[in-house]
Amino acid sequence: MKMKFRSILWVVVILLVMVVLVGCGGNTPSDATSSEVPAAESVNIIENIRSAGVIRIAVPEDTPLFGITTADGIQEGYDVEVAQMLAQDMGVELELVPVSSANRIPYLTSGKVDLVISSMGIKPERAEVIDFSNAYAPFFWAVYGPADLDVSNIQDASAYKVGATLGTLEETAYTEAAGLGATNIQRYDDQATTVQAFLTGQVDLIVTGNAIAAGIIADHPEMNVETKFVLQQSPCHVGVRRGEEGLLTWVNAFIYVHTLNGDLDNLSIKWFGEPLPDFPNW
User: Fold this and answer.
1) How many Å apart are CA 193 and CA 17, to the nearest integer?
2) Which CATH class for the 45-139+235-272 domain?
């Protein structure tokens, strides 16, 4: 009787072991799959860039001091030099991609470029689409015009034609200050056209950034252009695609290091005539 009981017990034990083994074996494929999915989804963009050997950076095509394309087809300016410094630190070749204010974010979100270094300020609507680094360059928007025009506020400016570049933060800020019904604002598709409209007298005043205004003042002293009033401070930030936290962290470290060692101060003095200001925290 005892032998029979032991035999039955061993049969039960063997059956249980088989069930456990089958159960473990059944879980193996799903476990492997679940461990492989995060690895596939976790893309290291920095490794991809280094593997490709090149980083594509959007820079301004028509923003004096920050970035322009010369008659020889060469890009130059503060943003261009920051892009060159960044590529050197990453150890890859640099592909500069000239962009306008209107297409710089679409170029980033569509994957045409890896970063945007294009005198770009932060606004909530933009932050819904892309991520931003810490500030790396000074920028403010103001209304500029000849010294003989008596303009010191938005109400005074309403008596004159005001030129602005469509889609820029300064155009948005001026429109909000003047009111959506304001009819004295002439909007142009790019910075170069806006500046040309001001230089040729198509508009009396121009809403633009300090860098572009500095270029106008330096190149056309006969116009006696001055700052009429400041609309808003807006330091510049590097644009990074959403979800690429590793690249964003790397860019912030790059900015931090080159702020500490004085490289960005030196570039700011070279292009804007003054060192970097104290930026607000972001």
Assistant:
1) 80
2) alpha beta
What single string gives the DSSP state of each residue in 68-137? EE-TTS-EESHHHHHHHHHHHHHTSEEEEEEE-TTTHHHHHHTTS-SEEEEEEPP-HHHHTTEEEEEEEE
> What's the predicted TM-score (pTM) here?
0.64
- Mark out the alpha helices in the chain (DSSP H runs): 2-41, 45-52, 78-90, 104-109, 124-127, 154-157, 169-178, 191-199, 210-219, 245-260, 263-272
| Domain boundaries, given as residue ranges, for the chain | 45-139+235-272, 140-233
- Burial class of residue 270 in the structure, from the number of CB atoms within 10 Å of its CB (0-12 exposed, 13-18 middle, 19+ buried): exposed
Quick: pLDDT tens for 169-190: 899 999 999 998 899 999 999 9
Q: If DSSP codes are grouped into helix, strand and coil, which group holds residue 168?
A: coil
Q: Quote the DSSP letter at residue 281.
A: P
Supply angle C-alpha 163, 122, 210, rounded to 5. 45
Q: Which residues contact 100 (CB under 8 A, 6 or more apart)?
A: 60, 61, 62, 189, 190, 191
pLDDT tens per residue, range 218-272: 899 999 999 899 898 889 999 999 999 999 999 999 999 999 999 999 999 899 8
Question: According to the CATH classification, is domain 140-233 in 1.10.10.10?
Answer: no
